[in-house]
């Protein structure tokens, strides 16, 4: 084997390992083995659109977009600012979120329900007041409905623009319907079941949304001051820029965000597609479940 051919797998392994460790945390390998290798029925079949979307590198962009969009609900943002530790432990929060998504998407039905139960217990304890005196409770079904709708919309928008295999119309509706299963388990009442209902839900929340100082501070932290080494900041800036350009214009205006000036006009989306392809190359998906693992129990 030539030195160049042997060098490529080594680079792939190093880059993919570093990304996986950052996203999944120190227990990532053990969690991945448990999630994928434990026998038993799953909430989602191997060919489910939920698995297609959640297993793609476009989630890096969709996740950032979701955080920005969710922050525009003042009660959701107040809860995050007071209880999530996103400034003091942003990577811990990311790792907990990615483990939850992986467990509900790929894990056994029992493990998925246990993950939901843990989140619901946390939500039950998260209560407080905004600076203006409005009360919030993270277990409020209405507030959970906004968080869910903004997340599903963000993941789907990012996948359709940057995913390896964008969904057709029926697949998009099936994705929304699939995520409704997790939403109901978390306490959302009547979550959207197709893209038309998702659009209607997002529209219905618009009168409640506004850019608080906490939301704008969070956007600055997410987009411009991530706790990353210098070498990782240029690719992160590309992800952040694409999260911004996929937001609705009203949300960009409300948060006062725009792509960084270092990316010339017209190059943001091509750079995003190139970067997501690179991440996809560096982080190949987990092997598909065998019938014996998926159906055991």
Automatic annotation (TrEMBL):
Residue stretches making up the ER-bound oxygenase mpaB/mpaB'/Rubber oxygenase catalytic domain: 52-281
GO molecular function: oxidoreductase activity
Pfam families associated with the record: MPAB_Lcp_cat
The protein's name in its UniProt record: ER-bound oxygenase mpaB/mpaB'/Rubber oxygenase catalytic domain-containing protein
Annotated organism of origin: Streptomyces niveus
């Amino acid at each position: 084997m030539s030195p160049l051919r042997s060098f490529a797998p080594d680079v792939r392994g190093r880059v993919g390992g570093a990304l996986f460790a950052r996203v999944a945390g120190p227990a990532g390998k053990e969690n991945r083995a448990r999630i994928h290798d434990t026998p038993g029925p799953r909430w989602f079949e191997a060919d489910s659109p939920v698995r297609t979307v959640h297993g793609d590198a476009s989630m890096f962009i969709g996740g950032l977009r979701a955080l920005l969009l969710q922050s525009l609900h003042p009660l959701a943002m107040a809860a995050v600012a007071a209880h999530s530790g996103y400034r003091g432990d942003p990577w811990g929060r990311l790792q907990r979120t990615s483990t939850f998504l992986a467990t509900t998407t790929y894990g056994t039905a029992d493990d998925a329900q246990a993950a939901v139960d843990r989140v619901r217990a946390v939500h039950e304890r998260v209560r407080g007041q905004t600076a203006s005196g409005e009360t919030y409770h993270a277990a409020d079904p209405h507030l959970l409905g906004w968080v869910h709708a903004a997340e599903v919309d963000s993941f789907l928008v990012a996948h359709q623009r940057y995913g390896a295999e964008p969904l057709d119309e029926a697949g998009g509706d099936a994705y929304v319907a699939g995520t409704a299963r997790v939403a109901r388990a978390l306490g959302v009442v009547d979550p959207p079941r197709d893209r038309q209902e998702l659009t209607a839900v997002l529209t219905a929340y618009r009168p409640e949304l506004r850019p608080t100082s906490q939301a704008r501070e969070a956007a600055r932290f997410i987009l411009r001051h991530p706790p990353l080494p210098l070498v990782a900041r240029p690719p992160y800036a590309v992800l952040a820029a694409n999260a911004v350009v996929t937001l609705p214009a009203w949300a960009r205006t409300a948060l006062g965000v725009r792509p960084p000036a270092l990316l010339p006009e017209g190059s943001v989306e091509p750079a995003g597609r190139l970067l997501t392809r690179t991440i996809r190359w560096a982080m190949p998906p987990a092997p598909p479940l065998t019938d014996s693992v998926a159906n055991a129990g």
